[in-house]
Specification:
The protein is α+β, with helices and mostly antiparallel strands. It has 4 helices and 23 strands. The chain has a 6-stranded antiparallel β-sheet with strand order 2-17-21-20-19-18, with no helix packed on it. Helix 3 runs antiparallel to helix 4 (145-181). The longest helix is centred in the middle third of the chain and has 37 residues, at 145-181. The protein is elongated and about 130 Å long. The protein starts with a helix and ends in an 8-residue tail after the last strand.
Amino acid sequence: MIVSSIAAQPSERSAGQRALLSSAFASLIFASIALSSTGAFAQGSAATVVTASVTRESAAPTASLPGTVISTRDARVRSEISGRVLWVAQVGEKITAGEPLVRLDDRVLDLELRRNRAQIARLEADIAVRERQRGRLAHLAEENNMAEFELDQVEADLEMLRQDLSIAKVDRERTAYDIERSQLPAPFSGIVVERSLTEGEYANAGEVIVRLVDPNALEISVPAPLRIARFNRSGSSVSVSSEGVQTIEEIRSVVPVGGGQSRMMELRVALDQANYLIGEAVTVALPQAEPVAMLTIPRDALVLRDREQYIYAVDDNSKARKVHVQTTGGHGERVAVEPLSGELEPGATVIVRGAENLREGQAVRVLSSPLALG
């Protein structure tokens, strides 16, 4: 009909009009072919997926508990003496162990040290005079009783001078020690995260001046119910997750002492500093019962969307079947699940790659044979 209509037009139609009509006709035909091809492809297409097998394993039910990443070396450095602050390391500055964090004004201490040295010199001079006097009296005492009495007095004075000299030397050492303490060295390598005082302010003995934190000595502090203490021990591996990152870490210590009201204890989990930041909130999966036989799947098979948690199993007709599940535990790359809808048996095939855009009943093409991942 379209071709006949075009052919029936008057012959005097211009060449430009004929070319325009021919172009429109060709575009219409190409569009029809593309639409037909798309529809055919959609009807017969199969999603490409990677699968794995459901297994039955012995696993312990876990409790997901909140934890906080902390540093095991977090020091609030205090002044050991009183004095005016001359310099404080800046917030964010990296300090190596032994390098100064704070410098206090040591002018008064320097003057005190000079006074101590002068006192020692004076006492040493007095002792030298009394020792010469004792030598002369010792010679006279052999012939004169009065000289013997004076000798005893000189020896007593000489002993007191020697004790005064010892005290003066202790004072000198104490002043020198205070001068050393006017500079506060870093007890370990770390980053300055807080300054309580700044240059020009006066620091009292025992007052906090800076806070130093080691970002490489990380642990997780996990408050946990006392009832799970018997199911966790030092050296056990647990799953730690935060912001989509999941790692397997080791329990460093369990402190099985709880509060009288909270009935909570603390666990410390060692951390790889490359994955977490101090103060970060994490979730730790801790065993809360004895291991039991459970269905396990690769963790990658779980789909979390719109407050739903499900997996896709592949039926005998190579079609995706949605199964809602509840996680009951897990370790490493596998997680224990309990089906809430549908059936799930050991040996069943589940999709671990390509499930994000699937829909119920969609045909699938397995990229590789089922793998028992884990």
